[in-house]
Amino acid sequence: MSQENNHGAGMPVPVRDRRMPMMVVSGVLAVVLAVAALTIPVPYVVESPGPAINTIGKVNDHPVITVTGHESFPATSGSLDLTTVHLTGGLPDSQLSFFDAFRSWLTPSDSIYPAELIYAPGVSQETVNSENSAAMTGSQENATAAALTALGIDFESKLAVASIPDDGASAGILKPDDVLLTIGGKPVKDLDTIQAVLAGGKGAPVDIEVRRGGVNKTVSVTPRLGDEGKYLLGISLQNTFTFPFSVEISLENIGGPSAGMIFALGIMDNLTPGELTGGKHFAGTGTIDPAGNVGAIGGIAQKMVGARSNGADYFLAPAANCQDVVGHVPDGLQVIKVATLKEAYDAVSLVGSGKDGSALPTCK
Q1: Which domain holds residue 76?
Q2: 7 lies in a domain?
Q3: Closest CA relative to residue 140, chosen from 58, 24, 254, 218
Q4: Would you say residue 20 lies in a domain?
Q5: Element (H or E) spanning 338, and its range?
Q6: Number of H helices, E strands in the chain
Q7: Contact 161, 177 (CB under 8 A)
């Protein structure tokens, strides 16, 4: 018998393939790494459309705006929606995964930003919520002041100390919540009054009368020259108001200053007879100051999407946001550009009265 026949008529001897276990291990490892890559936190923040809320309507059967101590005319139809943005990620206790970031990047209505552009390093969700709540309270007070000013209703307004840096000129002299009554013997009416007195004094110490804890007190502060060539007290200021009646705005889990203009419109509608909207559906956004100036906000592209999804046909946008509006307007939504509360009120009144609003200014 030949050697060839001893090998089984030429058939090869089976040899175990050692590469197969290695391929299986490599495949499992690749899957594990892929899953880890998709779930690992990334330092980004996603802006997406949030809910829209009718300020002249009700939430949980309770009016959003309630006036007490003055005749009011609650709306029975139409909408003046405040619009919101939902923020995800960027905080130690609210982080974004790579998968969520990638999904948002593919979603046309979402925007994604590096976290450092939105939040200070290490800030917590609790701190952000507290700051947003304070900003919301301030916007509601400014909205009430702007609405009453527009309607010619008198109220008392004072400037008070909001905060004092440790190295500021007023550190250890003025205190937070001090109400400024006079400076250099002149009544404090506004910031311009303060700046005029300081400029005239050219850095000399100035007497400031304040109301602290219900008691009037006079202190002396030596202003310092700031980077812009102006003499400064080294304080931040806030308005304090005394209104002749109560305006209550009831909303939960909504923060920030961007609903100011819409709040002001809702208050004006509440204080005047008839239906300002004429039953039509408006939405909008924008900060407001006591004088009625409308300021820019963030996330307007998402807010327009949220407004249209909630049924709005008209959107009031701050003129300062026009560059963010162009190219992002949803189909069927007419954007009306406004810079003041009066412009916003006149636009809503025009459309609400049934007149043609197609010629109203828009962002181009």
Answers
A1: 44-153+244-352
A2: no
A3: 254
A4: no
A5: strand 334-338
A6: 9, 22
A7: yes
Instruction: Using DSSP, state whether 230 is helix, strand or coil.
Output: coil
Angle, alpha carbons 332-335-337 (nearest 5°): 170
Phi, psi of 109 (to 5 degrees): -85, -5
Asked whether the beta carbons of 234 and 224 are under 8 A apart, the reply is yes
Same domain, 141 and 260: yes
pLDDT at 358: 95
Is residue 12's pLDDT more than 60? Answer: no
C-alpha to C-alpha distances, 169 to 114, 193, 226, nearest whole angstrom: 36, 18, 11
Instruction: Tell me: pLDDT of 243 over 50.
Output: yes
Looking at the fold, whether 117 and 257 belong to one and the same domain comes out as yes
More confident residue, 242 or 17: 242
Nearest Cα residue to 58 out of 211, 266, 278, 218: 266
Question: Which one-letter DSSP state was computed for residue 115?
Answer: G
Q: SS3 for 31?
A: helix
Instruction: Report the C-alpha gap between 351 and 279 in whole angstroms.
Output: 10
Give the span between the Cα atoms of 252 and 284, in whole angstroms: 19
List, as one string, the DSSP characters of 323-347: HHHTT-PPTT-EEEEESBHHHHHHH
Calpha distance 205→218 (Å, rounded):
13
Q: What's at 73, amino acid-wise? A: F
Structure tokens belonging to residue 15: 């040899």
Confidence (pLDDT) at 180: 96
For tokens 């974004």, what's the residue? 96
The CA–CA distances, whole Å, from 142 to 74, 115, 148, 257, 296 equal 21, 30, 10, 10, 15
17's tokens:
């393939």
How many Cα atoms sit within 13 Å of 188 on the Cβ side? 25
Where do runs of H (alpha helix) occur along 206-294? Answer: 260-271
Say which CATH number the domain at 235 has.
2.30.42.10
